[in-house]
Amino acid sequence: MRRILIAVTAALSLNVCGLARADSAQETLKHFVDGVQTLDTHFEQVQTDEDGKVTNRSSGHFLLSRPTSGAKGEAGKFRWTYEKPYQQISVCDGSKLWSYDPDLNQVTVREAKAALTGTPAALLSQRGGLTDAFTVQDAGAAGDARLVKLVPKSKDSDFKSIELQLDKNGAPERMRFADQIGSTSEITFSDTKTNSKIDPAQFQFTPPKKAEIVHGDGPVTTTD
Question: Residue 37's pLDDT is what?
Answer without folding.
Answer: 81
